[in-house]
Amino acid sequence: MFIQSSLSDKSTFFQKLRSLDYIMLITILIIGIISSFAMYSTDGGELRYHSESHIIRFVVFFTMMIFISFINIKTWHTLGYLFYIIVLGLLVWASLFGITAQGSQRWIDLYFINLQPSELMKIAIIICFAKYYHRVQIAHVNRLRNIIIPILILFVPIALVITQPDLGTSILIALSGIIVLWLAGVNIKYFFYSSLVFIISAPFVISFLKPYQKLRILTFFDPDKDPLGAGYQIIQSKIAVGSGGLTGKGFLKGTQGYLEFLPEKHTDFIFTLFSEEFGFIGSILLLILYAILIFRILRIGSLSRNFFGKFFCFGFGSAIFVYITVNMAMVLGLLPIVGSPLPIMSYGGSSMLATMIGLGIVMSTKIYSRQLIS
Amino acid sequence: MISSGEDSGFKKSNTINRRMFIFAAAKAVVFFGIVGRLFSLQINENKKYLTLSDKNRLREARLPPVRGEFVDFFGNRIAKNLTVYQLHVVPEQVEDFKTLIVRLKDILNLSDSHLQELIKKKNKQKPWETLIVSENLTWDEFSKINFYLHELSGARPVLTVGRNYPYNDTYTHVLGYVSEASVEDLVSNETIKERNVPGLRVGKIGLEKALEKELIGTNGVQRFEVNAYGKRINQIDFKEGEQGKTIKLTIDTEIQKYTQELLDNRAGSISVMDIYTGEIIAMNSSPSFDPNLFLYGIEKNKWKEITKDPLKPLLNKTVSGLYSPGSTIKPIVALSALENDVITTNLKVNCRGHKHPLELYGMKYHCWKKQGHGYMSLQNAIKQSCDTYFYEAARLLGVDRLNETAKKFGLGNVVLGKYFNEKKGVVPSTKWKKDAIGQNWYLGETLINGIGQGYIQTTPLQLCLMTAQLANGGHKIYPKIIYENNQENVETIKQKMKLAEENKSEDSNLLSATEKLFKKDEKTYDALYRNKENVKFVLDAMFRSTNEIYGTSFSSRIEDPKYQFAGKTGTAQVKRITEAERELDLKTNQIPYKERDHAWYVAFGPYKNPRYAVSILVEHGGSGSSTAAPIAKKLFKFVIDRHELREKKKNLTTTDI
């Protein structure tokens, strides 16, 4: 075992390069290219602000991902808690001194980028939990201590993000954490009980929500009630997707997007725009690309010899899946509208940064799949 | 340690894999759920959403329809479309509405009240809807706007078509006028509702209103794409509208203008009719007003001026004014009495003047002539318009038989029917009085009825039709103001009249049913008399009235046979003359305006070969012979001088076809 680890440690750069997961890389590249075209379309068929910065970000962060791939998985394990604490610190910073936009204080001005720490928290919580459960033996998982501490780790950032307020991201952070808890073997009854508590308390929680959030949830159940107000986004999004048909209206010909009927088409509704222009076939292709990506991540996880890598890959892969399905279900009118970007596709630096860091760690798991972590 | 560690690690690995597997299975389910949803939206419901998306992005703008024009008999345009310069503003495209409006105010000299109205209007409509700042700019203003256009972002100088009446007030009562469509217009007329656009002008009265359906034209349609904020992005489709029909009238503008000149702003009416074709050659009601004032909303003080005018310019007196016909009814009374054999042409009545008026049940019935006419024959009674004779004739005739004849000749009914707000008037009968007033008829009422006073009420156009139907030998004609290309020419009509005359003796009821069925669409010029000689007698008496000494309109005669006409004067009292007033015997200009008699004159000419009938009314003009008859003299000269031109034009158009 030691020998193996030292072998892996000392493998040459070319060996490392060769052991990169090229299928995954290519899939990411294709999604990135598709996202660039979609962004180009949101700019009305011109290379303007959104498409330009999106492409630059993709290139920069993709390169960064390759770099991260070559960092030993051990390092990530070592820095796991620190990373979590730094992101948590940034969250506090955002809550205190952050930039407010659209009624929510969630950004930190870093001059070259407006960082949204809550996006990074999505990945930090997985790293943190992966490290936590890496050492906990299966027999001890359901000890009270091992239940309380993770809940605290999870609860603090959620509380911070929910008060920004940013319901969507806090739900996604919670889901990311819960996935790892589930994988770690936390007793099913805890999930059962807590979901029971959640359902019962939901009406009370809703009463504490901001009016606009309440409205979003209510209009989800009946979007036609207020077609020009709160239900507008859902209705217009469904019209856009539905009118796309089998083959779509064609690149740059999506009238719903081009004529501004689609709200937030760069970010949350990028899939709607894509689906309108490329139709059912295009949407399915995009879904398949995401499926391949997730499948590769899970495969890398299953091949990892260390639990940190396994937890991280399974957790991250599943989280990506959750992000995608929540976003799509939302724009297809299956879930209420809560802010949740589509990984890689949506405009947004922090989301892209977090996703690429995650993918980098996954790649590093692949390269150092034989690495053992004590 | 290691082994237990390995064992524990193995178990842990198992747990993770197992849980991952459960989760992956759930993922697959969710994944297919998403695919299913995509399928249902994009494949199953594609059509529905495609329609919705088109509804989102496509807007249709209806362009204002181009209104049909009116031309007179000779093809002169009397209501036309002019290029109008307008200034539109789309508030959405304006950076600073206040600044723009203040700038425009400077350039166009807009009034403060107009400005307030604009701002009010702007606040009422959607920001992408056009705001019409000025509907009718002069060329100077328009070029000024174009000069300053670079600093007036959002302002759009626009060329469009608007109504124009080149003859100003000449045709007002015939054509009416157009103005912006009101709520009532939209409710009452489906066609307007269907084709309405902001700023649409529709007919308010007259032919403009009556012929709205033919005139209005169809909308052009402009389809364009809009964005979510309703802003036009680009035009997709453009379909031009069809202009409304051009309507040709039977009226001769020169004569129409001349009648106006003759009335000279006095309250009154003149109509001229072709006694065979029924074509109305002129139809004027005075005073008139300029319909162009109404196109873009009339100014308040102008409107006040028109409504407050005691001469009632808004009333179309020719068809909607009701007056006692006075002595102009006498030819019909005479004809009716002859036709019903209650008198012969030999009947003599002694008119003994104001000292010995006719007395009936204690009431006195005076002739207009103070000294009396002496022994009068029927012919002289018509010629000199002796009231006493006609009291006697009416007494012998009775009101119901007179009613029958008068109605036959066109009184008591609308003449042109659907086009104007025509009044029927009243031709009384015993039954009518019972129904309308609920009282029995008194013989005394028959007497004053016989000289065209009392209950009887007619419009000037009815009297014109009556005269025409007498003048053509007593045949029914069909008055018209709109020229029909396929109308019968005069020769055919004359022949048909002759035919009707021959058939009359067999009684038109005996005309076989099949024959009638075949001729359903064909116009028949039925004889309105029993004995043609009676009509001839009355016409001859009218000739003498104008052309023989002692005739009431002798001083207005024309001796040249080309223009020679025959007519009957009328002087209709507007109030009862008291004994004291009769004693005073005041001159017309000594009586207050409102109490003066209406002056009437009905006539036809040229006498040898009659073709035109006229009726002339001057409200409160005094006596018919001094006020109305001289107008006829000038009018006949003018009308007959234009006769050849008219015939030539008619032949041209028939050969055209």
Task: State the gist of this model.
Chain A has 374 residues and is mainly alpha-helical. Chain A is built from 15 helices and 3 strands.
Number of helices of chain A: 15
Main sheet summary of chain B: 5 strands, mixed
Under the CATH scheme, the architecture of the largest domain in chain B is: 3-Layer(aba) Sandwich
> What is the alpha-carbon Rg of chain B in Å?
37 Å
User: Which structural class fits the helix and strand makeup of chain A?
Assistant: mainly alpha
Largest sheet, strands/sense/barrel of chain A: 3 strands, antiparallel
Number of helices of chain B: 26
CATH class of the largest domain in chain B: Alpha Beta
Give the count of structural domains of chain A: 1
Uncertain runs of chain B with pLDDT below 50, 5 residues or more?
none
CATH superfamily of the largest domain in chain B: DD-peptidase/beta-lactamase superfamily
Q: Estimate what percentage of residues of chain B fall within beta strands.
A: 15-25%
Q: Count the strands of chain A? A: 3
**Whole-number count of domains of chain B:** 2
Structure, explained:
The complex is a heterodimer of chains A (374) and B (657). With 374 residues, chain A is mainly alpha-helical. Chain A is built from 15 helices and 3 strands. A 3-stranded antiparallel β-sheet of chain A has the order 1-2-3, with helices on one face. In chain A, β2 and β3 (114-115) form a beta hairpin. In chain A, α3 runs antiparallel to α13 (270-303), α5 (73-97) packs across α7 and α11 (232-244) packs across α13 (270-303). Chain B folds into 2 domains: 62-248, Penicillin-binding protein 2a (Domain 2) (Alpha-Beta Complex); 253-652, Beta-lactamase (3-Layer(aba) Sandwich). Helix content of chain B is 42%, strand content 17%. Chain B has 26 helices and 19 strands. Chain B starts with a helix and ends with a helix. Chain A binds chain B through residues 137-139, 179, 182-185, 236, 238-246, 255-256, 259-261, 275, 279-280, 283-284, 287, 291, 294, 298, 301-302, 307, 310-311, 314, 318, 321, 325, 328-329, 332, 334, and chain B through 8-9, 11-13, 15-17, 19-20, 23-24, 27, 30-31, 33-35, 37-39, 41-43, 45-46, 48-50, 52-53, 56-57, 225-229, 233.
